[in-house]
What does this fold into?
Amino acid sequence: MEGFLHAQGLIILLVLVATLVAIVVRRIRFPYTVSLVLVGLFLSVQRPLDVEVTPELILAIFVPPLIFEAAFHLDFSLLRENLTPILVLAVPGVALTTLIVGGIVAAGTGMDLGAASVFGALIAATDPVAVIALFRALGVSRRLAVALEGESLFNDGTAIVLFRIALAAALSGYFSPVEGLFDFTEVALGGIAIGTALGWLTAQLIARLEDRLVVTTLTTLLAYGAYLSAEQLHVSGVLAVVMAGLVCGNVGLAGASPTTKIMLFNLWEYLAFLANSLVFLLIGLTVDLAQLATNLGPIGVAVAAVLISRVVVVYGLSWLAHAGRSRPHIPLRWRHVLFWGGLRGAISLALALSLPAVLPERETLQAMAFGVMLFTLLGQGTTIHFLLRKLGLISLPQHRLAREKRLGRLFAAQAGLRRLERLHREGLLTDEMWAGLRDDYHQARQRLIEEMNRLFREHAELEREMLIQARREALQAERGALGDALRRGLISTVVYEELTEEVDRRLEALEMIQAALHGERAGELERDGA
Amino acid sequence: MERRPIVCATRGGEASRRTQERAIALAKERGADLIFLYVVDPTFAGPVSDTLAAAMEDELKRLGRSLLSIAQARAQERGVRARTVVRAGPVWETIKAYLNEAGAETLVLGAPGDKVDEAADVGDVGRLAEEVRRDTGVEVVVV
It folds into this structure.
């Protein structure tokens, strides 16, 4: 009982820290996941928490929701458009990374090639969550985000499979490339088959069920069930979750009602946020700075090896992926982002922690893994913003920023005016003071409205976007009002559900209209990138 | 003799303000009535359920009505008599049918700006404008 209470207290403490970090970073505009690592590091130095991070905790508890959410949201049509480069980067790319990193680390540190290859595999999986969050905030092309996210989803699976093969070889001292290839194919295909089958089955159930709570529970069962059943059968659990999420998100959602879709998206967004927050906080808490300090040489070699391998894989393999095509799958500017956006995170942490004690170089390998993770998160994660700006990939042109700024000021001015009106009503402002302040606010508001009109004259599409945005706000208010009506007993649950579903359908329609309009702006950037 | 109306087909994209301004100027110059036309074609979304397709069509119509009423107010400010029409259907066929129905003298339209337009097959404006001219005998001004 005491152990349970201790664990519960610890989880609450970690979630509290993550929440505080989230509140602060929203104000200082610093990458959330990077901030969590820094806070974790700070906490571990100041007052080490009694946290035992096991690989099972990361892989079986945190990784399924993270991967399932990403796969669930991934648009299959966009994935299909980029499938060739994604698979090239995620399968031969991971194998090549393992070989290059293994080779450089062995040569640079004098480590046994078997152990160096284990490191090569464990560090091969990319985790671009910090970069993807930035993409969303900055309005970077969805296709570029899908390329980076798709690569990460599939390379997580392939890296784990390769890691297990490399580890077995390092421990036994025996490695047969043919057997290795056979094992890899069997484990990867097995995971893909299980995930696809479970995902399809769940999608069929979702299409037949109307109860959104049951549907939501089913997806939770799917995410963890796919992982556990695949691992039980000794095939790739991660690839099973990827396929389950992809199939369920793209096939299952087609048959779900708009209200169920909104509920599912909200739930998975929350679960992924929670898992992500805890994983990155735990990365910071787990890093042993003293261990890093004594292994600075091998860490330097490891960082160089990871960067070199990323150059070879991103520029070399993606060139091969579109050889013979008139238009490249991945424009050159995107490849720069794929190179610098190849951060390392949850999977590398879990695999580094799972290294068995019998492996002689375990401590060094772990220090190298943590060193690389910190370098990519703190170095690359905090500078990718500048790279995106330099490459002109941020699709928020000046006139859009100008509209947002004016809108923000108008919104703030309205709030200020309301506050003054209230002070006047309460007798805290004299009539003269109120009149003077009110006129000042009215003039400022008029100026802003004129500026907005000028912007709309020069960029007519902004006016259309504003109308769509206003309609969405109105629909959300309608939805809230229906909830109030239900609580006050004005309408029954049946009527409430029918009417909210109608509002949700309209919100979905607006989203599709807006996505179609946004698609053109992203398309322009993609064409430029090519 | 009263001039036949000028029809301005607009969708609220990048070129729409220029297109509307041009149509207003033309109507004022000729003393003609101006009709702002918005054609809804929700096929850009691909195959979706009937209920979602209906919601999209309805939302696009609402958007069209709002955009056209803004354009109408601008025309009226400039002393031009203007009305608004929202129709649903394949863009070019609907425009042609409406030009005949209204007995229009001139069609003013802008170049396409977004995926909604592209999917609605209004990509090659020059070629399609020529087709409208040929099929309806109406003068076409592309802005």
Notes: The beta strands of chain B are 6-9, 34-40, 82-88, 106-109, 139-142. Residues 6-142 of chain B form a domain with the Rossmann fold fold (CATH 3.40.50.620). Chain B has one domain: 6-142. Chain B touches chain A at residues 12-18, 44-45, 48, 51-52, 55-56, 58-60, 62-63, 66-67, 70, 113-116, 118-119 (CB under 8 Å).
